[in-house]
Specification:
This is FIG00031715: Predicted metal-dependent phosphoesterases (PHP family). GO terms for molecular function: 5'-3' DNA exonuclease activity; 5'-3' RNA exonuclease activity. There is one protein chain. It contains eleven helices and eight strands. The chain is an alpha/beta fold. It has two domains: 206 residues, Metal-dependent hydrolases (TIM Barrel); 56 residues, Orthogonal Bundle (DNA polymerase, domain 1). Strands 1, 2, 3, 4, 5, 6, 7 and 8 form an eight-stranded mixed sheet that branches. α10 links the parallel β7 and β8. The longest helix has 18 residues. It is globular. It starts with a strand and ends in a 10-residue tail after the last helix. The mean pLDDT is 94.
Length: 292
């Protein structure tokens, strides 16, 4: 069984519609795929219908922007009730902040001599739930300023660069609890891929496990082999679920092909058991896995 628990569609910053993504997952030989667009469930309905048609099991989720000890970190939330009011409130704030900082980023880029406009970004964002830095990066690619999203972030958009502007993100512990109360289950996304490993070492993960974190995304393209081994050891010591995934964005990211990393079936089964337990305790109407 091949299981990929982290993908993105046009509902956030991927380049495929949810239907195209489900169909691509089936062609890639996936048995189970999670749709985890940034801070939104907007693609769930379309992906659900496509997954049932394509014969692939779909886990509905999202990747939530959070902050931990002053650093931005991402939290994968699986099978929460998307109508749970506190979750909706946090997601609305995140999306509003994401779109709201676009004018400020554009202003900074133009001050640095980069000819890009808000209209350029809106065209790239299309039907996404909110415009964000990846769409600004795509606009820079289309303008010929950079060759791909990676160069755009490295040169202009990541912290410390000319176009970076801070935005709202929920506190990590708060969001772990919010997802739990929404009947879902949480996994830390690529924890050492973008931030200093020292900020999320074993002691930090132990505290987060006590707060309700279910797992760690260990097998990810942004982790080195040594980091994967160390994260796997931390997960074993703390009895956390180990997941692996592509973090696929269509053509928006290179070397993140569907199924390039996968989750072991026993770890997936355990994650689904934890999700079912969370839903039972919360008493929420949570989305089941569909298709397959």
């Amino acid at each position: 069984m091949r299981i990929d628990l982290h993908t993105h569609s046009l509902a956030s910053d991927g380049t495929q519609t949810p239907s195209e993504l489900a169909e691509a997952g089936s062609r890639a030989g996936l048995d189970v795929m999670a749709l985890t667009d940034h801070d939104t469930a907007a693609g769930w309905a379309e992906a659900t219908a496509a997954a049932e048609s394509a014969g692939i099991a779909l886990v509905r989720g999202m990747e939530i922007s959070t902050r931990h000890e002053g650093r931005g970190v991402h939290l994968l939330a699986y099978l929460p009730d998307p109508t749970y009011p506190p979750l909706v409130e946090h997601l609305d704030l995140i999306l509003e902040s994401r779109s709201g900082r676009v004018p400020a980023i554009i202003e900074r880029l133009r001050a640095a001599g980069i000819d890009v406009t808000e209209d350029d970004v809106r065209r790239e964002a299309g039907a996404s739930a909110a415009a964000g830095r990846p769409h600004i990066a795509d606009a820079l690619v289309r303008r010929g300023v950079v060759v791909d999203r990676g160069e755009a972030f490295d040169r202009f958009l990541k912290p410390g660069r000319a176009g970076h502007v801070h935005r709202y993100a929920a506190e990590l512990v708060t969001m772990i609890e919010t997802v739990r109360l929404a009947g879902g289950v949480t996994v830390m996304a690529h924890p050492w891929g973008r931030s200093d490993p020292g900020s999320l070492g074993e002691a930090a993960f132990a505290g987060l496990a006590e707060d309700g974190l279910a797992g760690i995304e260990v097998d990810h393209r942004d982790h080195t082999d040594e980091q994967r081994d160390e994260l796997r050891s931390i997960a074993a010591n703390l009895d956390l679920v180990v997941t692996g995934s592509s973090d696929h964005h269509g053509t928006g990211k290179t070397d993140h092909d569907l199924g390039c990393f996968t989750t072991a079936p026993d770890q997936y089964a355990r994650l689904m058991e934890l999700a079912a337990g969370s839903a039972a305790v919360a008493g929420r109407a949570t989305p089941p896995v569909v298709g397959g």
